[in-house]
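To whoever is on call:

I kicked off a structure prediction for a single chain this morning and the downstream step that reads the tokens threw a length-mismatch warning. I double-checked the sequence; it's 409 residues and nothing unusual in it as far as I can see. Pasting both halves so you can look.
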Amino acid sequence: MTSDDKRVLIAGGGPVGLFCALLLGRRGIPVRVFDVNPCLQDDPRAATTHPATLEIMGAAGLAEDMARVGLVTPIFQFWDRPTGQLIAEFDHAVLAGETAYPYVVQCEQFKTARLILDRLEKMPNVEVLFNHEIISIDQDARSASVIARGPDGEKRHVGAWLVGADGGRSIVRKQSGIGFEGFTYDERFLVLTTPFDFRANRGYCERSYFADPEEWCNCFKVSANGPPGLWRTVYPADPNVSEESLMNDEAAQARLQRFFPSSKPYDIVHKNIYTINQRVASTFRKGRVLLAGDSAHLNNSIGGMGLNGGLQDADNLGDKLGRVVADGESETLLDLYDLQRRTVTVEFTQAQTIANKKRLEAREPEARRKNFEELAAAAADPAKARAFIRRTGMLDMQARANSITLERA
């Protein structure tokens, strides 16, 4: 038996692909990761790591380091922007005794990827090939292969399995003929980042959500390169306004001033705009091809569930694929991976993120009143608060996934 008979090929060197490589590599499985970029990207997008994901990362020996380079944030708040009223405050401390991680860690995804890559670089059975673009894939009954274009030209790589963790535009998913069902929002999300301290100057906690029928906002803090850290503000962006009109310095300053009036100009250190999708692949497995992360599902960022879901995919897949390859267990485990992860992605991640957006943007006065009453009642009752945070912290999602068998969905 050659190494190709056990090798796992992974498309995508972001946190999801690298984490899957780490879990497989620790079982002695040969792994080859391909990433189109020349090195890890300082992508500032995803940061929030929920308790359910921290449990996974803790088991892999990563959670403590994530907290060290990130920011531990146990509290999050909901505000009504028009009145300036604090509607509800939730504290993850109500989960004490249920999880070793009764908090969220704000750890930017490039930091998580770096922590994983540092470990992979010490593993001789794992290769991470940057500057390698996958241009085609193939599979048969016994193997999967890719043709990757690297610094030395095009080369065919063969393995036993291929994991597509190559993002929302995944070539692995597309060339496998796997559908990507769902929709794209008309509006985009505009992100403006500033070192302005919203806690010290406005009393907002490190994860704050502002409901407004005209212009909602998420405001959260990351540690960045160290104190004092940075605050990211996220807004809906009119689809009829050009990117330049939204992103120029004057418009960005006006947006922040309109939402958070200040006597001084804001120092805006980063701007970006994103197209937002709610999509799920029609299957997470097709023969010897398996999907994880954004290749398998996309959702809006309100509530910070996208990367969390991807890391949970990688954990589930790393375990099951590891058992198939290293221990010779039945390949039906991979059908179970598909069933478990796709089910909870639809039932929890998609449902929760859509609901999160609707809660912030609700226009009808009665709908807004009902939303606020439900949030306030949940925050005031420890049992309701615990249930609310178990869902938003994705603990219920993990419990549901673990309960699913091939006989009982």
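Update from on-call: the warning came from a stale cache, not from the record. Cleared it. Sanity check on the structure: The mean pLDDT is 96.
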